[in-house]
Amino acid sequence: MENPGTTPSLLSYPRYRPELKPAPFLPMSRAEMDALGWDACDIIIVTGDAYIDHPSFGMALVGRALEAQGFRVGIISQPDWHSADAFRALGKPRLFYGITAGNMDSMINRYTADRKPRSDDAYTPGAEPDKRPDRAVVVYAQRAREAYPDANIVIGSIEASLRRIAHYDHWSEKVRRSVLPDSKADLLVFGSGERAVIALAHRLAAGEPIEQIRDLRGTAFMVKPGWRPEGFVEVDSIAIDRPGPVEPHPDPYAMEPQQTAPAADGAQPVRIIPAAERVAARKADRAKQVIRLPAYEVVKDDRVMYAHASRTFHLESNPGNARAMVQAHGVGPGCRDVWLNPPPIPLTTEEMDWVFGQPYARRPHPAYGEARIPAWDMIRFSINIMRGCFGGCTFCSITEHEGRIIQSRSEASILREIEEIRDKTPGFTGTISDLGGPTANMYRMACKDPKIESSCRRLSCVFPGICENLGTDHGPLVRLYRKARAIPGVKKVLIGSGLRYDLAVRSPEYVKELVTHHVGGLLKIAPEHTEDGPLGKMMKPGIGTYDLFKEMFERFSKEAGKKQHLIPYFIAAHPGTSDEDMVNLALWLKSNNFKLDQVQTFLPTPMAMATTMYHSGKNPLRKVSADSEAVDTPKSGRQRRLHKALLRYHDPEGWPLIREALRAMGRSDLIGTAPRHLVPRDQPVVLDRSGGNPGGGARRTGKAASPVGARRAPPPRRGGKPTR
Hints:
The two termini are 31 Å apart. The radius of gyration is 27 Å and the shape is globular. Among the domains are: 10-218, Response regulator (Rossmann fold); 578-718, no CATH class. Helix content is 30%, strand content 12%. The chain is an alpha/beta fold.
């Protein structure tokens, strides 16, 4: 297993083909390969997105990094998956197929939170829908295997990362097994994959069989039961964080062996771990431990054990102290283990600069002609300055994919990219649309002590409060902003990524700099809720912190002579949210004159901790047992519609549902036309297109035009970000 202190730098490898020169675009056809003088590709990346040669898109980021290492990389973009023909377009790769669903999980890309098919796809030319299959990683991997049965198949991207162990699947409403046995892939790369993919390519090129490459951090694979590296000791996850019902002490006078009955909620009895085994588990060398998670066949039927597995998984996410994990899939002779190595070591600033400094064309492949690709329009003038997020929001997938440790680029690298946008990107008029990433303001933030960071097991550095060991200096970001807007040809630098306002309020200088120079009238911010119950389940700060930031924002806007507004994001139907919570949020929105045009309903994404709450009814933020804290979750279609309607309290279409709910809650005092009321008693009268109904009179309707004064829909979240 790779040791964190001995992981080779991305810049330390000798180039596999020293003579290889950068291609204008990575080839998508045989004709392009011929023009480059290639007889075959070393690696072929299959992606569910249109190929855009820009570092915000995974296929370009990994492809260019491999090219810089001297490998010939081809791209198969959005292939027809109904047969294997499209997967033979570039021939057989010498080393491996790299399979990715794209920048988004394919199921989230194709379906709404209510499981309705989306009408468009931002990552497809012309925004056409249905250009990728459901569960694209599995389908693409199977077709690649069909095209060339002896080719190496490596799966990756956020879709593979979030499905690397047994996980709850919102669309089928069941726990599905790891993506590895379904895809039949040889290897899964999770998280930011440059380290693992580059090391893998060099080792395969040196002749090492893929089935023997078992020590790369950030990879997972299938093995026979009982397999483990030499010197490794298996530890049952129950010895670390024992779930299940509390066992009564045995009766010493009982004549018959006592049988433990299943818990009331159906959870099965849990094996008692002897004290000696628990002590041994704590004392053993962590680097040589592998944690045995409950098997797929257990977690698919036992919700307590599912929550326990989720909690164990998330506690082993710090690259500095994470242990390998293993989970059985199948029973009897067909049983196999999914083995997960520890997460990848974060990239250094030098490595980040190298990855983002490759010769990207910074535009879509010419094969798409003039077709519009919405995701490209969204990010073409934006720049990723960092990776990772230590916020730990339970509904968000960034932590599971990119990790909690912030990986920042150097100031010089970022400023060079601004100049490249100015000089190379068509349509640039002087405005940089974003300097950010998963968040706007975690640039160069880190734990004050590397030793503490490497041993920490907190799920968030900022909840329930900001850790005293976290450095929150915004000075480097302020200096970057000032230098960025001073570049000749740059008229404006905006901040489009979501702002972490609980960090921002610690630096009035930063807030003033941001508000004075980098807000284009509207600033995105995500309080997500106002009530402590749901906020605690989200691991988000209280609304008082938002009020403090709002006061600073308005004060500095006034000093700058600008009329600017905050655009808040809120989530409806999040686990732990009651109807009363949503009513209180709606009243807060009305009192602050917020009228939201677009709202977000909670979507259970694979492996997120909030998804665990949604599925299991348990809180994995604390020790899990059959009688531990229960989390009530809005699941019925009616309740989810109600919570969404309350966020849009001003929309007459939702008023009948809100009135019915308020009466059931004993809150009829909120129905009326006074300012203190939430909705009126009657529906508005709206004439039909002919000026009236066929009977000559007006008709009542639940629908109406957008109310006067309604705020415009907030801009979409950044196209290059992982799924929330």
